[in-house]
Amino acid sequence: MKRIAIAVALLPLLAHANAEQNLKLRLDNLSQFQAEFQQQVFDEDSNLIQTGEGRLALRAPDRFLWQLTAPEESLLVADGEAVWVYEPLMESVSVYRQDDAIAQTPLTILTRTDEQAWQQYQFSQRGDCFDAEPKDEDSHVRKMSVCFAGDAIASLAMTDSQAVRSEFALTNFSTAPLADAMFVFTAPEGTEIDDQRGQ
């Protein structure tokens, strides 16, 4: 009876471990990819408050591009050392140390395989969908979900600390090689640069 009780107590831990390992196996086959996305944003009462569209590209271990083309243009580029957040309408770009910026989001696990990044989250699995929840209660992200269709990522979702949920349906998913230039940002002439990297 005691062994049964111990086994039951360990089940949640085993489930989390299996979910993490299963997600890692899925991502091992996706060292680089790009896709277009349709975005829907819902408030805490599940009311649709915004829609958008754009594209994303990732290449492990630390290259990332997120471009919103509607309703307003914005661009985020991670080049391995810095993260550039460009707002064309404002003609401004903010620059952050990549370790500082990427540590704030579970999207880290899509591009990095180091244990330190993965250990910051608890994982669960629902069929072909995986949830990652930060262990840090002060995180501004409550949960990230990633769902697969075969070997491709079909959708992503992020819920923030205000219970605002952003859902991204991915299309034209491709694992073709990505050019290095895709992950290099050069500020257009006249752009105001706010460098937050410090010394």
TrEMBL record:
Keyword Hydrolase annotated: no
Any Pfam family hit: LolA
Protein's cellular compartments: Periplasm
Keyword Transport tagged: yes
GO cellular component, one term: outer membrane-bounded periplasmic space
Swiss-Prot/TrEMBL keywords: Chaperone, Lipoprotein, Periplasm, Protein transport, Signal, Transport
Family: Belongs to the LolA family.
Entry-linked PANTHER family: OUTER-MEMBRANE LIPOPROTEIN CARRIER PROTEIN
Summary of the function given for this chain in its UniProt record: Participates in the translocation of lipoproteins from the inner membrane to the outer membrane. Only forms a complex with a lipoprotein if the residue after the N-terminal Cys is not an aspartate (The Asp acts as a targeting signal to indicate that the lipoprotein should stay in the inner membrane).
Assembly mode: Monomer.
Annotated protein name in UniProt: Outer-membrane lipoprotein carrier protein
